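User
Here is a favour to ask of a fellow structure person. I am asking you to supply a protein in sequence and structure-token form. Please set it down just below, with no commentary around it:

Assistant
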Amino acid sequence: MSLRVFSWLTLCALLLLLKAVCGAGVEETCVKLDTSGILDGVYQDGDVIIGALINIHNFAERPDMTFTRKPELTTCVNFQERSFRWFQAVVFAVEEINQNPSLLPGVRLGYHIMDSCTRYPHSLLAGMSLVTGGNDTCGNIKPTKLIIGDSSSTHSTLLSRTLRPLQIPVEYPNFFRTVPVDSYQARALAQIAKRYGWSWVGAVVADSDYGRGAVQVFEEEIKDSGICLAFSHTLYRDQLAKDAAIAAAKVQESSARVILVFAWYTDVEAFLLELINRNVTDRLFLASEIWSTSYKLLRNPKLYTITKGTLGVALRNMPIPGFDDHLRKLHPSRYPNDKYLKEFWENTFGCSFGKSSTSPPCTGRENLEDAHTQLTDNSRLTVTYNVYMAVYAAAHALHSLLKCTIEKGSDPQLKPKCGSTDLLQHVKDVHFTTRSGEEFYFQDGNIPPVYDLVNWQENQDGSLRSVTIGHVNADKLIINEAAIKWPGQYGQFWSNSHRNECVPRETEFLSITETMGITLMGVAISGAAITATVALIFLYHRNTPIVKANNSELSFLLLLSLKLCFLCSLVFLGKPSAWSCRVQQAAFGISFVLCISCILVKTFVVLVAFHSARPGSSVLIKWFRLGQQRGSVVVFTCIQVKSLRLHKAGSQNNRQEDPSLWLV
């Protein structure tokens, strides 16, 4: 998605612009177009009016196209909080400029913002209404001088072509972008595919220049690189449910595990939900900037499993000083004519400003400080920042136009006429420094291509967040590999021999059905049985002098520990888990140390016995009596238990020998 700045130079708009800005005394003429059915939008008067087309709603039913009568525009539905934040960026920028004495001194900006509804008829007629002032051209609503265009490239170019005054040998002389050209993000995603060797990629795109153009650029970029496009499906907005189902079926049938998606985020949501219904959750998505940071998709619990690990490009995240305070102080009482603010208020607080509604009436005591909405989430002001910069670009162009009198007329009383190319030239020559220290300027109607690379990662509560993992500057790709979190565990999947499908890694472990496992089990059971037999013999002869002289307690404890050491081998058979790894370490460690402790104490007893005849040996014999022997075994064993508590074992995967295998 991109935001466009237009300078509409139709005759009516040009004459009014000359009067308002240059002061030329030209007689006003009224131009009326039939724009009945178009809502007036939100209008704030000023000396110069800046228009804006924003898709505050994203859906409208198709009008009756029987061609037997004039089609009527259908009502726009599905209020978009994200787009309403763009709306507020225009309002905030205009109010901020009006308070700045160094920018457009003596000229007060106004705005006229209309809803394009993401539909061609609404967008075109709204644009015509902005240029002419609608049905009230000769009344109180002034035509706009510049228009911040629709978020859709197709809609914006359509308006540019329709409202261009004369055939000039440039395709879109009055078309400017405050975001990079869409082709750069398609190139960036193609570079990502080449970087990781994804040779089989599918594509799902919108039915617009935005989607179709992206696929063309992507195909050109991957040509001769060993990457092929498995399929390409178009999502038509007017039959979204049907097309989303078809696209999901194609993804399910295809062996491609990487899917490029260039579409509006509401269309993407429908497509992803259809994939979930088909239990297709093992794909990696390459996201365009229009949905790579979508609050709605990131906060949808149904999509957590399928979208985890998504890679995408995003517009740079830049702060807007003071914008957060502006949003939190919004209230219908401050903007009584803003019907979109009232609609947002009703949706957020579940109240109504109408008398006939079943919802409780809005009291005005509601507070956005207590509400958790996308509007006040300013963690990523990507598109919002570019809308804000579009208003400033228009203001700086108009400010340059104020010098028209000084540059073209020596007599202050003389009011020269500014040519039609002057405004366009001033927009082309815009060059200023933002409050954050960034330089803003146009290169052939575009700004330098700079993007962020983002990765959708899981939070501790299972939700997702968009994390910046790199940058794109023109055609230069910079990625922090360590910051990426792939779907599932890292390295869980491996490509097949054709490198066109991800397959789970083979897991190798000591199985009870293998020869080595059977042999180990046989030796362990045999050793345990022999040890148990010796213990029974000792038990049977426990009252004999030889057993008593050998410290029968330590002997039985030694045989028990030997038996446990043999049986511990059985715990190492089968696929390890976190629980079995802890049992393996604890069981063998304790039983082995117990065995060694008994041998050590018995050896020390023998050593003391051989030195008993020497002078002073009575002290040593007294110290190492039966109680001290038992205590020594307990102390040595407790040391091992303490060590096991400090070292918590877990299952570890070794893939150094063969990357396609896991040895556990």
Remarks:
- The radius of gyration is 38 Å.
- The first strand starts at residue 4 and ends at 6.
- The chain has 21 helices and 22 strands.
- Residues 515-646 form one domain.
